[in-house]
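Sharing in case it's useful to others searching the archive later.

Someone asked me privately for the predicted structure of Transcription regulator gal80, so I'm posting the question and my answer publicly. Question first, with the sequence:
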Amino acid sequence: MPFFPLPTVPIPQHIATPWPPPQSVSALSASPPPTPGPSTPISPTSPTPHPHTQIVALLNTSSDSAAAAVKAHNISPSTKTYGNPEDFAADEDIDLIVCSVRVDRHRPILLPILKKTKAKAMHCEGPLGKNLAEAEELAALARDRGIKTIVGLQGRAAPTGHVFKQILDSGRIGKVLSVTITASGYNFGASDLHTLAYTSDISTGGNLVTIHFSHFIDTVNQAVGQFKCFNVLLDIMRPKTLLRDRPHTYTPKTPSDEPVKIIGEVERTSHDQIMLQGHLENGAVFSIHLRGGMPFPGTPGNEWRAYGEKGEVRVTTPSANLHFGGPGHVVQVHDHESKEVEEVALPRDVFDEEELPWAARGPARVYEAFAESLSGGERRGEIFATWEDAVERHRLVEEMYEKARL
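And my answer, the predicted structure tokens:
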């Protein structure tokens, strides 16, 4: 089962990135990379697409901080730096604008740029806005101005999801009867890194439902189909979040390494438990439970099954970040008749061979597919999502919130 080959697109695209936050794990950051500990390398989740791109401008909270980011991330010194969206929008050398900031800052930055820019394309991390109204406003303005758009639902380019879909489409397990998912969110447990404190506040629009679940379920829906109807339960089981000075990945390795410190506490108003059950459009029943916190030691952070008349397909991953890809993604097929279980190898592409950070490979595939579309190519099997697609994700989230309030 082949994965989509990635083309060589012989056209340069200019890229500019507005206001990435200091803690961002993107290719560009608003300030020099933080140094919380020796086990926390900064890895880009939104890498510069190559070899078809050139970073020509950077927007930050000030031109000085933008210049510091250029130096810290070893970007070309010829990169223009800006301190406000209006000046940035007037730059006529930009073809593609990439917004990589906290979700509650998307609209304040993008709105003035959308009204003025001559760029022909814009990329924004998902979710597009902090709520449905913001997403609809941004998508409508981009549509009215004829700007091509991408939203960072990079799970559509993840080999794991494509292989899962190919198995179902092949008829190997027969008619799908049920889909079952249990996953842990890694974040949203007893404690989180202090820079993620905003995710405990539901008003910011960045939380377990809008980020973790939305990315995860977009990948799943591309493989198994959309929801026909569902019931939902959302709850807050940990009303307070302790704030750590280092991420969960940090472990002291020597006696001289600093231990993790709890440096604060915030009230949680965003949900840490998500349960859905219902029917897919193809008639199959589904059940999903995504919770905050770390997985049980020695068990997968996510298990995704599709049970069919003739067999079952199972995916296990270390976390609910299915859209990231990464080591530990395992796809297996159980044949009911032969009783055999086969592990299906995941295909590799140029970004795997170049060993980009795992979280960067999906965005790299999206950029590559988008570059092809700008040169007249097709969307390549829904590898990338538009802002109109992002609005549909927001509508699902809004429906979940409405049903949970009943």
